[in-house]
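Researcher: Next entry in the queue.
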Amino acid sequence: MEYCSDRNSGPRILEYTHRGLSHIRIENEALYIVVLADKGADIVSFEYKPGDTQILLAMPGGIRESATFIPTSDCGVGAFFDYYPGGWQDALPGGNPKTIEGAQTGLHGEACCLPWSFDVIEDSEKTVSVKFSCELIRFPFYISKTLTLKNGEAKLYVDEQVKNLCGETKDLMWAQHIAFGQPFITPDCMIELGAKAFKTTSYFNSPTAYFPAEYSGEWPKSVSPDGKQVDLSKVAPVGEPHSDMYYIKDLQQGEYTVHNPSLGLGVKLSWDVDVYPYITYINVTDGLKGYPFYGRVYYIGLELWNTFSDVYDEAKANGSMSSIEPYETIETQICVEIV
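Model: Structure for this entry, 339 residues:
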């Protein structure tokens, strides 16, 4: 029997099936959260109830029923984009496709494509808390995250854990792959982020980008090669297709806020900057052509990374690759709050 709280108001939990996949909905007076348990424990909905405002990106293709979806052929970067619904997922091992110690991994690794189990930790009038977990197949990692909502708070607590299941020290590239979309993201949005510098990627060569590949500049305002002053804290206007991707470092603290003044709404993320000292910022405002976006997606990604690159070899070369010791467990908390 699918799980259902015995309340119809306040903090509560509902399990249901949609397109053949198990969904877990947790909500309170302010927030409506949906987790796709059978695919990466992706957070596919983060809705602010008072304004009926969806915060996260929803891809045009929606949620695909993986049991009946048969790809036309293998994809060189892996299955991530075939099944990508938008939203927020753990990328473990994060980054671009790579063979690591004989194990091949596609874009953003295994955790975001595997089914996760779930356990209800607390279901009361004051708090609901659900733990999602899975063990990877090609890599010796266990990962879990516990989502908690409290009565009267417009705040989601996400307690994350990764454990090395073997007796060897392993590289750890781990990211929170977070994408904000419409209707929350509009040209009015501003990003408040305490940082000093950015660098563009080595491979993201969009013709609509402000800066070329491997370009270093100051955050948030920098002068482009054609002499234009660019403020990266502003979202590009509708009607001006644009796409860019940046690695951001020298964070002053583990916190950023995305403001939408026209909605009178902001979303603040806070986290342990020692665990995630870098951000990968993606600004795609209808300007990323071809698969899988085809110029029809308006969103920004503000992803938390533990490496200063989403390319495995680059993170090794620049010294930012993290490691996890034999049988070590790394724990951290992320908070998302409506402000």
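Model: Residues 12-64+79-338 form a domain with the Beta-galactosidase; Chain A, domain 5 fold (CATH 2.70.98.10).
Researcher: Noted, moving on.
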